[in-house]
Amino acid sequence: MAPNPEPKSEIAENEAELTKLVMEKDLASRAEVEACLKAQKEASAAGKPAALGDLLVRRGCLTPSQLARLRSSMEATRGQQIPGYQLLSKLGSGSTAAVFKARQISLNRIVALKVMPQRLSRDPDYVKRFYKEGEIAAKLNHPNIVQAIDIGEASGYHYFVMEYVEGKTVHDELAGGKVYTEAEALAIIIQIAKALEYAHAAGLIHRDVKPKNIMLMPDATAKLADMGLARAVDDAAAAQAEAGTLFGTPYYISPEQILARDIDARCDIYALGATLYHMVTGQVPFIGDDPKSVMVKHLKQPLVSPERLNLDLSAGLCKAINKMMAKDRAKRYANMTEALKDLESIEFLLDVEETPSGLAAMADEDELSASKSGPGGAQAAKNGAGASAEPAKSGTGKAPAGVKPTKPADKKTYAAPPAPRGFTMEPILPSVWKNPAVIGIIIALILSVIVNVLLLMK
Are 258 and 329 contacting, i.e. CB atoms less than 8 angstroms apart? Predict the structure, then answer.
């Protein structure tokens, strides 16, 4: 089913407001403006919509710099029309709203101000959805979800105030050519999975998880944004009203959303898997000449397994992505908690694989310090680093000069298991193998093998 046509972008500004400014500043005559408005209607009827400002520039009525100044003036006016907020700059715009960086005057803090254009304020459906987003976001209080602050209407403008997130989006980084390492991607996706797990537990599904809606802060915190398409899982009235209507973004949308069927939280699992796929391979799961061809591939074309595009990916991650993106939702993870469990296990394995080299270095340092510290140190090494053997004592009851007492064993230190009675490992293994750090390496490797086997058996 073809998606509903989107409303014109907010960039196709309020013609009345722009016309008024052009006339007030004597930049063009009424006849010139009316000719541009007529051309705009003709272009729209021919299926080639154009912004009034662009037509004014194209016909020589305005210069590009004049148009830019007029648009800035319009934005400033809009910001001044919302009491309590000072508009600072434009962050971006979408089909139903523009987002500005603003200062909340009462608390002197920076916020993100989402403003609905007046042309949509006359559409009760858009107004209802706009307020719905604010209400939904206000119910969610999670460190990985952009927090709602305020919502209201002033001078004919509906606005929604949100937490301002300093940083960029995953989309920004992907557009810049970045391909995430497995560890980098998991660090972000696990945070978003926790946000979705929380939202799902609250009875809400997002329906538009994608790189552009994942905000990245300088401290490595990832936040899920734009709850505008979210709705309650048990909202039967909304589900019935939306039957046959497509919601979502083509590159990351689940098959059941394309078919406009009744959906559940598993559509977010699919979209998160598609986002993860893009992050670690550098390309979207399915490519097409237009949204329709992309969506057909979501429905019918088998997914190219991510390891074919990035040989550095682990088998566990590839299997998790394939499961998250199963076309039949019954074959996906049953819920985000299950998906999160596997993703965290894969991340743990990555940490374990990076740990042995560090432990080996620790073992080398222990051997080196033991050889330099003399007889007392050698004895400590023989008993095992961190063992409970008492330090060598002099006749005064104090440790000899230059020899530090052995510290009590740390709770996290791996202790070597005792050898069976009548058996000694002395003639077989060098002393380094009795070092707890080396034992730690062996235990970590064994755990790695066990977890990998369990993942492959699922």
Answer: no
Give the separation between CA 173 and CA 170, rounded to whole angstroms: 5
Q: Contact, 84 vs 51, CB < 8 A? A: no
- The reported pLDDT for the residue numbered 28 is 83
> How many CB atoms neighbour CB 199 within 10 A?
25
* pLDDT given at position 43: 84
How far is residue 22's CA from residue 230's CA, in Å, rounded to a whole number?
40
pLDDT-derived band of residue 438, with 50, 70 and 90 as boundaries?
A: low
Q: Average pLDDT of 50-76?
A: 81
- Are residues 51 and 133 both part of a single domain? yes
Q: Is residue 1 part of a domain?
A: no
Residues 187 and 303 in one domain: yes
Enzyme catalytic residues:
208
Question: Which residues, other chains included, contact 323 with Cβ-Cβ below 8 Å and sequence gap of 6+?
Answer: 273, 331, 332, 333, 339, 342
Q: Which domain holds residue 309?
A: 168-334
Distance CA 23, CA 321 (A): 57
**Residue 397: pLDDT over 50:** no
CATH number at residue 100: 3.30.200.20
Number of domains in the chain: 3
How does pLDDT run across 274-329, given as a tens digit for each residue?
Answer: 999 999 999 999 999 999 999 999 999 999 999 999 999 999 999 999 999 999 99
Predicted confidence (pLDDT) per residue in 125-183, tens digit:
888 887 887 787 788 899 999 998 999 988 778 888 999 998 999 999 999 999 999 99
pTM for the full predicted model = 0.61
Unique residue bearing structure tokens 């390891």 = 307
155/231 same-domain check: no
The answer, yes or no, to whether residue 2 has pLDDT greater than 70, is no
Q: Are residues 253 and 151 in the same domain?
A: no
Indicate if 20 and 157 belong to the same structural domain: yes
Same domain? For 108 and 210 the reply is: no
| Same domain? 233 vs 325 | yes
Is residue 69 packed enough to be buried (19+ CB in 10 Å), middle (13-18) or exposed (0-12)? middle
Q: How far apart are CA 231 and CA 239, in angstroms?
A: 9
State which of 163, 181, 212 marks the end of a domain.
Answer: 163
Same domain, 156 and 175: no
